[in-house]
Design brief:
- Two copies of one chain form a homodimer.
- In chain A, the strands form two sheets. Chain A has a six-stranded parallel beta sheet with strand order 7-6-5-9-8-10.
- The first copy, chain A, starts with a helix and ends with a helix.
- By secondary structure, the first copy, chain A, is an alpha/beta fold.
- Chain A has helices at residues 4-12, 16-22, 30-38, 52-57, 71-77, 114-126, 144-149, 164-170, 208-211, 231-245, and strands at 24-28, 45-50, 67-68, 86-91, 104-108, 131-135, 160-162, 174-184, 195-199, 216-219.
């Protein structure tokens, strides 16, 4: 039986301070929970609540211990407006430590929006980025909105948080950054690896401290009148061009 | 003085049926309302409500008639959680009629998510797309979430809604569509204009009827493990590659 303490615990995990205290995070909805069950080695399951319907549908994937609950309770404890499938609580692993010898690497400087961070992780997973480094003040990876926006890629890619200036300094390769005025990315010649790309804050762009460390300023050419692109959209275009040009 | 009828009217415009009945739509927030005032020829203003602060800041851009209201009232009538600047109600113009001789054209097949449609319009504005055609069942352009996601591009690009199969049939140029298995877009040679690109529904992709009309199936190469990209992100990568290859 789900206890009141469990309900309180799951609800508390919508806040970063409780996620850090308990070292737990929440994954919601049929598709994402299913991906968790299909990749049992990625994270340890602390608790799984699902509807009768979900349990029947995925019987052979369920762990030994789980609770059948109502969709009403799933909606009450989670952040989804409607959830008639499942909620799973997973252990947050020890801090991720990427190595600085990766071949294709993303540096995220103060990404604020959870949807953008999730989309960036999904993109990194599509374009085969080896490592993601985030500045300390980038939105928390274990935020439920980030997890949801990754569409399952959180199982394969976990970023390392820390001093981004130190990360970039220690990276043994060429570092590119996107600016409104830089080299036209369509006109670049082939790019040598290891390659690192810095994506800046949605409103303020890349910080001056990091700008000083960037070897090449690149930009996405415009053919119309829009002032800018969204950070995740711009990152998609940059990753695509880099992959096309990587030798 | 704002009347109760005005309050009711503005609130009703969050629903498509009332927007169509009244031929009016709502634009909210400092940046978007400011863009409207800076482009007075794009849409006729039916009503403008703003805070004292907004009125002082942009005094020289205000129309002859407007109302000073509290931010509380702006939040009550609009869809933003916080709005301490302005709400403007604009006339919906006569149906847009694009010509079928445009040089670079986007066909949107049942785009459901307002954020995606808004981002697609912003992208079209960045990449200089001449015309956007939407299937009848694509989310309404005048939905406040669409308008907000365009980041001002709604002032420059308005899509035409209608029978998308007929649109594509009458288009006098090459039509490309994105699929999971198609020609690798990085390996395409130059592309001839006029060029049209079909973007399919977020879950179901491009319909079989439209697929029959598509000359070339293209795809975005993957280098990792993610199963798919978001519709707007994929469109960004495709538009970027097309612009790079257009002769």
């Amino acid at each position: 039986m789900p206890t009141n303490n469990d309900i309180k615990l799951i609800k508390s995990l919508s806040q970063k301070k409780y996620r850090q205290l308990e070292r737990l995070f929440v994954v919601e909805g049929e598709k994402s929970v299913l991906e968790v069950l299909e990749h049992p080695k990625a994270f340890s399951i602390f608790l799984l609540w699902c509807t009768e319907n979900f349990a029947q549908k995925y019987e052979n994937l369920l762990p030994t211990s789980y609770e059948i609950v109502s969709s009403k309770l799933l909606e009450r404890v989670g952040s989804f407006q409607s959830n008639d499938s499942a909620v799973v609580v997973l252990d947050i692993p020890q801090d991720v430590n990427c190595n600085n010898t990766s071949n294709f690497c993303l540096f995220l400087d103060r990404i604020n929006d959870p949807g953008n961070l999730g989309t960036l992780i999904r993109l990194a997973d599509w374009y085969g980025v080896d490592n993601i480094f985030c500045s300390e003040d980038t939105v928390d990876f274990y935020n439920p909105k980030v997890i949801s926006a990754t569409k399952g890629s959180f199982l394969r890619i976990q970023p390392q948080y820390g001093d981004i200036t130190a990360f970039v300094k220690s990276f043994e390769g060429q570092v590119l950054g996107a600016y409104l005025e830089g080299e036209n990315i369509h006109q670049l010649e082939s790019l040598k690896t290891p390659l690192g790309i810095v994506i800046g804050n949605e409103a303020a762009g890349i910080s001056p401290e990091l700008t000083a460390l960037i070897e090449r300023k690149i930009s996405i050419p415009t053919f119309g009148n829009a002032e800018s692109l969204n950070a995740a959209t711009a990152a998609a275009v940059i990753l695509d061009n880099c992959r096309r040009l990587m030798s």
